[in-house]
Amino acid sequence: MTTHAVPTATTPRRRARTVATTVAGNFIEYFDWLIFGLYAPLIAQHFFPSADPLTALLAVFVAYATGMLFRPLGGILMGALADRQGRRLALLLSITLMGGGSLVIGLLPTYAAIGVAAPVLLFLARAAQGLSAGGEWPAAVSYLMELAPRSRRCLFGSIFAVSSAAGGLAASALGLALSATVGSQAMADWAWRVPFLAGAALSAVLLVLRRQLGESEAFVRARRSGPPPGLRRLWRDHKGAVVVAALFVVGVTVQTTTWTTVAPALAQSQAGMPADAVYAAVTAAIALSIVVLIPLGLLADRVGVLPMLGVSVLGFAVAGPLALNAASGGTGRLVLCLCTGLFFMSCLTAVLPKIMASMFPTHLRASGIGLPHAVASSLAGGLTPALATWLAGAGRLDWYLGLLTVTALLAGAAGVRAVRRARPDDELPQTPATPAPQDRVLVGSART
Questions:
Q1: For residue 216, what are the β-bridge partners?
Q2: Distance of CA 272 to the CA centre of its chain
Q3: This prediction's pTM
């Protein structure tokens, strides 16, 4: 495949459209990922018939875990694809898999209609979405950081983080609106399919838009210099960077999971708070993170990455355990707890893409990001809620608070090391380029 760079700089309007098209995939990923969890009890009724509703629900969560298991594979395979064939192709494949999985789930006949084929197809759809979720992050982050001006990379990273929070918020809001509109019986019968079909429709629209993306100039230049080395070369020549990136992601993931999953769950199970109060607190905290992320990204571009790391690490290590310990004191305290945690989290996620992208050369950037991010986030994200629940049930929540402090310091140390490992030849350019002569490019150049 021949790629051609466009040497002229993009206009602000076209750059904004490129950024929106790139981060929209992250929005859809989090939207689709959350609705499966939200509607797990309803899915269980249709695809895993059982005399015991709990057994059916457990089967659905096994399907949910299937998606998590395939995320590392997606990060590895699509990271390699993005480095060999281009960021654009990886972004197209990622959104196709995510939308296809949602379409299958939304239209899938029930167990009563097609028997055992129903759960099998459900597992395959979740596997496709897992591959997509693992591959979207490295391809999109590589593309964004190669598009962003040097003075705006944290801003672009914060926009990427906003898309994650907005996807989760949209899924929750759509669920509430549907339930209020059609009622609980209709939700159980058919309306639970609507969000999946909406996710599939959004994916189809985004697929059309992404076909018009140009390839990043950094990738085009790296590709012209020769064929990219494989994962073996990544591990051989950049083992230290891969390990540092994985440790950084572990620390970040433990903190993220704590404030988005563990704290709300403990508020219900340990303090007996009503579910609607917990949902309201979560919604308020996510809304706060959406509001502050863009200003924090602008601030990070102004003051640098290390001060933002320092603020987030000190906040998590000192204020984080205190806030989590006070979460069971009522709705007001829970809101304060979650807002505190997600504020410090926003300081970290605003700089995360820039830190990760700067550690690896262009021809290995997506693989270097995808391998440690997918593996570390899947392991840490999957084990953290179970560990927190077990320690809380054993009366050892203080151990978990200690773990929060340790992982915050781990993230800080790995982040500082990552900044110091930033490549001196970090030549991330300012413009995208056209992927092929026959394709039309609407961003990064005039129409061709």
A1: 432
A2: 30
A3: 0.84
What H or E segment, with its residue span, contains residue 432? strand 432-433
Question: 213-250 pLDDT, tens per residue?
Answer: 888 888 888 888 776 677 788 888 888 899 999 999 99
Please state, in angstroms and rounded to a whole number, the distance separating the CA atoms of residues 261 and 257: 5
* DSSP string covering 48-86: S--SSHHHHHHHHHHHHHHHHHHHHHHHHHHHHHHHHH-
pLDDT tens sequence across 307-348: 999 998 888 887 777 777 766 666 777 888 888 888 988 998
Distance, C-alpha 237 to centroid of its chain: 27
Q: Any idea what DSSP says for residue 434?
A: B
Close Cβ partners of 316 (under 8 Å, ≥ 6 residues apart): 255, 341, 344, 404, 405, 408, 411
Burial annotation 210-248 (CB, 10 A radius, 16+ → b, else e) = bebbbbbbbbbbbbeeeebbebeebeeebeebbebbbbb
pLDDT in tens, 280-307: 788 888 888 899 999 999 999 999 999 9
Residue 339, both tokens: 């807002």
In terms of C-beta distances under 8 Å and separation of at least 24 residues, what long-range contacts does 45-51 make, across chains too?
Answer: 45/188, 46/110, 46/111, 46/118, 47/108, 47/110, 47/111, 47/118, 47/119, 47/122, 48/111, 48/119, 49/111, 49/112
What CA dihedral angle connects 107, 109, 111 and 114, to 10 degrees?
-140
Print the SS3 string covering 356-413. Answer: HHCCCCHHHHHHHHHHHHHHHHHHHHHHHHHHHHHHHHCCCHHHHHHHHHHHHHHHHH
